[in-house]
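Assemble and predict.
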Amino acid sequence: MEQSVDHVDSNEHRVGRARNRGRAARQASRMDGAGQNAHLQAPFISRNIPTYDLLDEENLIKIEKAADTILAEIGIEFREDPETVELFRKAGGQVTDISAEAWNIKFEPGMIRELLKTAPERFTQHARNPARSVEIGGDAMVFAPAYGSPFVMDMDKGRRYGTLDDFENFVKLAQSSPWLHHSGGTICEPTDIPVNKRHLDMVYAHIRYSDRPFLGSITAPERAVDSIEMCRILFGSEFVDQNCVIMGNFNSTSPLVWDGISTQGIRAYAAAGQGSIHLPFLLGGAVCPVTMPGAVAQGLAESMVGCALTQLARPGAPAILASFLSSMSLRSGSPTFGTPEPALGSLVMGQLARRLKLPLRCAGNFATSKLPDGQAMVQAMMSMMSAVQGGVNYVLHSAGFLDGLLSMSYEKFVMDTDLCGALHAYLKGLEINDDTLGLSSLREGGPGEHMFGTAHTLSHYETAYWDTELNDDQPFESWSEQGGDDAMIRANRRWKKILADYQAPHLAEDRDEALLDFMNRRKTEMKDAWY
Amino acid sequence: MEQSVDHVDSNEHRVGRARNRGRAARQASRMDGAGQNAHLQAPFISRNIPTYDLLDEENLIKIEKAADTILAEIGIEFREDPETVELFRKAGGQVTDISAEAWNIKFEPGMIRELLKTAPERFTQHARNPARSVEIGGDAMVFAPAYGSPFVMDMDKGRRYGTLDDFENFVKLAQSSPWLHHSGGTICEPTDIPVNKRHLDMVYAHIRYSDRPFLGSITAPERAVDSIEMCRILFGSEFVDQNCVIMGNFNSTSPLVWDGISTQGIRAYAAAGQGSIHLPFLLGGAVCPVTMPGAVAQGLAESMVGCALTQLARPGAPAILASFLSSMSLRSGSPTFGTPEPALGSLVMGQLARRLKLPLRCAGNFATSKLPDGQAMVQAMMSMMSAVQGGVNYVLHSAGFLDGLLSMSYEKFVMDTDLCGALHAYLKGLEINDDTLGLSSLREGGPGEHMFGTAHTLSHYETAYWDTELNDDQPFESWSEQGGDDAMIRANRRWKKILADYQAPHLAEDRDEALLDFMNRRKTEMKDAWY
């Protein structure tokens, strides 16, 4: 028998005895319950560990040159937005007409990078509760719920289309977790609301049920405008003009196309001084080269162009470089998430964004599993570790992502937020000093003597280790006596309890009424549309 | 709706169509089945990505100085092995008698490091099949099954004490996976065999059912000698004297004690020219300081002393620095595994081992979960990623670890080996060149055109992405029609199929008979003992 097993057994008993006496036990009893970790809570993470730099400069330059070559020799296709084409033409882009509604623009090497110089390296997105405002860029890191699933799932009712009720539930679950920092955007599609109106309900829910920052609509330019208008009601027009209070998450149409809906939306957000995320969704071998370096280079090219457009609309507007890297199953032809090659690509994206001095959105708790099981969490960790180690600044898909992004899972949401909490401890790193080296603890007893009761242990006991809110770390016997539940079942109980305990943050009544008035007026002005 | 969802939907259809035609589909059909990844298979991993270096040199030196201070001012206690004490005394250690059977030895700063200079930075452990020999140290990385659980678990029969049948099953499961490189040691305790005889059955099972390298017994000096003697029968005495063919995994008794059973065993392995691992099992706040830097410093001190003893027994004997870092649940007092602080500590151990020019054993697929569920895999990933990113050379607990090391899980074993496979792809890193940057793929179609059929895609299709043997990446509907099983259930089916398909590697009949003769003779010489 490995001797460590003896240690496990005997240590359990020794620790158990220690807890029944002394100051440490009393201090523990004063805590609010599992998973609080008060010392780690913050409106956003300040990364205190180095980034994991995969490539050397020579190889990074090769990727940057490939992106420049793509932009100079193949070019980007723009569709149905002549104003954007005109902005790029004036800035030096070489425009070729493809049709009446499509243009190819080529950019001399360095031109796009030059345009990006006015974009901020780091900026603040304000929350209606100023204590919840976040910073995006530099060593700041912000976790937001997953985004964009048409379906929701839970262990009781299985998979079904999302509704506004589900949407509100997820806003509440996010607001209740100290390990997310941002309310996200389309956490799930509220498919019971007409497509042309649901953005109003979503923005309202973010404002009403959360006091954190959030994302607005991008599915049509007028919906982007509505989203920003609701922020003007909430924050005041002048504040909104001078500060970022909302952002839009825009997808390119890979390979190498920016459609007019997106570019109009990007311009709307930027012109209002608001933030935007410029995301190529890169499925290798389908819409980008099947080899990861090619996917990264193409994504860099596409995202840089989106970011550059913001600076043409309003220099200094916040813009976030982004990349969503995925792979493909050789056998089924399906997209796969949480696989090793995209994880490596995300680390490289981190390096490229820092060289470009732009904030980065990349990776998250991805999974193709259809249940919140071991597969889901292996895939989630593979992707999420690359985000935090790569120094990603805004992680949109931090919680709930299942079924290849087709479903938001209630159970995985709380499993992911617990993991996000653990990552707070991870990103804090290790401080090395005489106190943390703890020789006093060893000296107090000496060889062979346990350290449960040393002054050093007692003074660090409460903050030395991350305290999970969900994992069961009890001995087998206790776990078994309590029902022997797996993580899925515990997560199912947990999200229900969180929703039952949820209390909405205060919202001034006049603002609430003004928002409802606006929403009702806009809804009355439009006929229901389902596209 | 986030546009990426459209991409997921539409890409699935597009990829599906692409698979039904063309060379790529025909190539795929020639493959042996899921999870083969022939291009990634190797007798051991050669790490091709940089290590993740958490601390700068200044902080590493602080830890090294703390370890030196521990050795110089507090010292290590040795028990019941006067020969070891005498070896250290002659080498310059300052010995103080504690009792007739216990001594404290203090070491001047630098003395232990000086002794370690004759230990190899990298060595070969030979397998009976020369194609399966592994290298340990440098950029080489070796995965072995978990070690030391008294219990085994599967989804059919739950938790029960391990037997020799279970032990043999796990040797066979390990041998069947291309993603492990080493047969390990006490994969589970064969509790149906007397304690004083089971080492013979375990070593025989490793030899008979695997053709990979393995670990021998450490629970008593005569059992270590038996283990080595069986290798002499297998490899020939002369070969064994000149080459490492077996290793022992020795635990210190933290804090700061090496007991006589361990030091005698260490000397037996080293004197025979065989390898040894020197492992402090560090439960923070119990047997080491509760703060992670203190745990690392103490572990370094203890492990260095164990390694140094090998060089006194036989200069040049292979020695592996090691550290098993764990944390404690504030609430229950139980040890916890797969938590963030030990993951950081493992990264630091990697840095310290490289500075010391010694191979490192550290971390693995740890978990305190009692089931192979989402919790198990979050914890496993947190720990295992630190091993591979920290450049650990020998990962003993790579597969099956559950229930805080008290149970070997059949299902988690195959979940872990699939993860180990993914890590082969991860550790290969990204090669950046004109071919992998894939501009030809983009040029073949241009903006807006998919890349399923480009020459570049077809030439990289089979090796671009890791192919899982266990995860289900199909669309929800296909998964659901096939039963909607979670990862646990699929893993349950998989290990049964692997065992059903298992075929023992060839072993020359005369060697087999000689081994059985030796084993039977030794068993006859001893009365059964259960301690």
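Chain B touches chain A through 163 residues (CB under 8 Å).
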